[in-house]
Design a protein that fits this description.
With 235 residues, this protein is mainly alpha-helical. It has one domain. α2 packs antiparallel against α9, α5 packs antiparallel against α7 and α7 runs antiparallel to α8. The longest helix is centred in the middle third of the chain and has 38 residues.
Length: 235
C-alpha cells in the first residue's frame, strides 16, 4: 500500500469539516499569539510583588486588556484545534491522543479559570491604584492585589499553563511521526514539548534556563501554525 493510500485510510472522512474548522482556528490562534508577543515584548515581563505589578500594569492598561482579551480568545480556539487533532490522529494511537487531548483541554480550563481572572483583577486594581491620592488608599489596593499577584508568581501556575500543554504537544508530536502530518510538524511538536519541560524544571537547577520559557512560547506559536496548515490540508 502506498504512503498516500495509508494516509487516506488513516483520515476519518466524517471529521473533514472539523479539520477545516480546526485548521482555521489554528491560524487565528497563531496570529493571536503573534499579536500577544508583539504587545508583550515592548513592555517586558511584569515585576514581582503586588505593588510593583500594580504600577507596571497601570502604565499599560490598554495593552494588557488587549492581551487578556486575545489570550481568552486563543484559549477557546484551542478547543476545535484539539478536537481536530484528536480525530485526525486517533486512528494512529487513540490512547496517546486521548492523553494529549486531556492535557490540552486541562490547560484551557486552568488558564481560563486561574490565569486571566487574576490578571483581570490586577488590571482593575491597577487602575484604582493609579487614581488614588493617599497612602492609605494605595495600601488598601496593594493588600487586595497580594493574592492574585501571588497566584501569578507561583511555580504551580507555570506547571498549569506551560508544562501541561507542553506535554500535550509533545505526545501529539510523537503520534504525528507515524503519518498524516509532515515530519517537520511532528519534530517541531516534540521540540516544543521538550522546551516546555525544560522551562519549568530547568530553572530549578540552572537559573539561566529561565529564558527557555520564551523559546517554548515561540515554538508553540510556530507549531500551532504548522498543525493548522496540516489540518486544513486534510479537509
Amino acid at each position: 500500500m502506498s504512503a498516500q493510500n495509508m494516509m487516506i485510510n488513516a483520515i476519518d472522512p466524517d471529521g473533514k469539516w472539523l479539520y477545516r474548522v480546526g485548521g482555521i482556528s489554528a491560524f487565528i490562534l497563531g496570529l493571536g499569539y503573534i499579536l500577544i508577543i508583539a504587545l508583550y515584548v515592548p513592555m517586558g515581563a511584569p515585576p514581582s510583588g503586588a505593588e510593583a505589578r500594580l504600577i507596571y500594569l497601570a502604565g499599560n492598561p490598554t495593552a494588557w486588556w488587549t492581551i487578556l482579551g486575545l489570550s481568552v480568545l486563543t484559549d477557546f480556539l484551542f478547543v476545535p484545534v484539539t478536537l481536530a487533532l484528536y480525530v485526525a490522529l486517533k486512528g494512529i494511537n487513540k490512547n496517546a491522543m486521548l492523553l494529549a487531548s486531556a492535557c490540552l483541554a486541562l490547560f484551557v480550563v486552568l488558564d481560563l479559570a486561574i490565569t486571566w481572572p487574576n490578571y483581570a483583577a490586577l488590571i482593575t486594581l491597577s487602575g484604582n491604584y493609579a487614581t488614588t491620592t493617599t497612602d492609605v488608599q494605595r495600601a488598601v489596593f496593594v493588600a487586595a492585589a497580594n493574592y492574585p499577584s501571588s497566584v501569578l508568581e507561583s511555580t504551580l501556575l507555570g506547571v498549569y499553563i506551560i508544562l501541561v500543554p507542553g506535554m500535550g504537544i509533545l505526545i501529539t508530536g510523537f503520534v504525528m511521526l507515524k503519518g498524516i502530518f509532515s515530519k517537520s510538524t511532528a519534530y517541531l511538536g516534540i521540540t516544543t514539548g521538550i522546551f516546555s519541560i525544560i522551562s519549568i524544571m530547568g530553572p530549578l537547577f540552572v537559573s539561566a534556563l529561565g529564558i527557555t520559557v520564551i523559546i517554548a512560547s515561540l515554538l508553540t506559536t510556530i507549531w500551532v501554525l504548522f498543525a493548522g496548515y496540516g489540518l486544513y490540508k486534510l479537509r
